[in-house]
Amino acid sequence: MSPDSAPAAQEPDIPTAHAAPPGLLDLFLAFARMSLAGFGGVLVFARRAIVEQHRWMTADEFNETFALCHFLPGPNIVNLSVVFGSRLRGIAGGVAAFAGLLLPPTLIMTVLAIAYARFGDLDVLRRSLAGISCAAVGLLIAVVFRMMTPLLKRMDPLALILMLGVFLAIGVLRLPLPAVLLVAIPVSIGATYFLRRKVAA
């Protein structure tokens, strides 16, 4: 390897600068705001708050953490709150983020469920819920493109091929998610391991 190419090979993929870690109350309030703003899905607001607003994670770190949470049992955003809070403040941080994420919407949904049981047959309410569903789909599409940005900037062919393969397998061919993951996870880990060894050699 030539001297000119050595620094480029050692350059980190993601920036290392972060804001100061939040306290337990900050974690609780941050995830509470995410949950209250996240009508139709919290992921959009979670990424915006964690990566862009507070700079507690870089875009790549968020993608990696969310990918891990996606493969764990349970709702992805709940897993993210626990993993993220635990990473910054240990078990107490995980509990604080988890409580902030679930407590406010639980209280609100309890009230709304009572109201829906009484007024759910109203046509105006059904149309309103349909409109909210459309907005939720738009938000989800937007955050998917935002999460793809780091991969597209790096132009990592392996990541792009794996992403396209999983999309085709699940979205087009309608293959079962567990079967796709059983293939995609070891392939991605193995390919990344060998490529990094090759770069380091």
Automatic annotation (TrEMBL):
<keyword id="KW-0472">Membrane</keyword>
<comment type="similarity">
    <text>Belongs to the chromate ion transporter (CHR) (TC 2.A.51) family.</text>
</comment>
<dbReference type="InterPro" id="IPR052518">
    <property type="entry name" value="CHR_Transporter"/>
</dbReference>
<feature type="transmembrane region" description="Helical">
    <location>
        <begin position="128"/>
        <end position="145"/>
    </location>
</feature>
<keyword id="KW-1133">Transmembrane helix</keyword>
<feature type="transmembrane region" description="Helical">
    <location>
        <begin position="27"/>
        <end position="46"/>
    </location>
</feature>
<feature type="transmembrane region" description="Helical">
    <location>
        <begin position="179"/>
        <end position="195"/>
    </location>
</feature>
<dbReference type="GO" id="GO:0005886">
    <property type="term" value="C:plasma membrane"/>
</dbReference>
<keyword id="KW-1003">Cell membrane</keyword>
<feature type="transmembrane region" description="Helical">
    <location>
        <begin position="95"/>
        <end position="116"/>
    </location>
</feature>
<dbReference type="InterPro" id="IPR003370">
    <property type="entry name" value="Chromate_transpt"/>
</dbReference>
<keyword id="KW-0812">Transmembrane</keyword>
<protein>
    <submittedName>
        <fullName>Chromate transporter</fullName>
    </submittedName>
</protein>
<dbReference type="GO" id="GO:0015109">
    <property type="term" value="F:chromate transmembrane transporter activity"/>
</dbReference>
<dbReference type="Pfam" id="PF02417">
    <property type="entry name" value="Chromate_transp"/>
</dbReference>
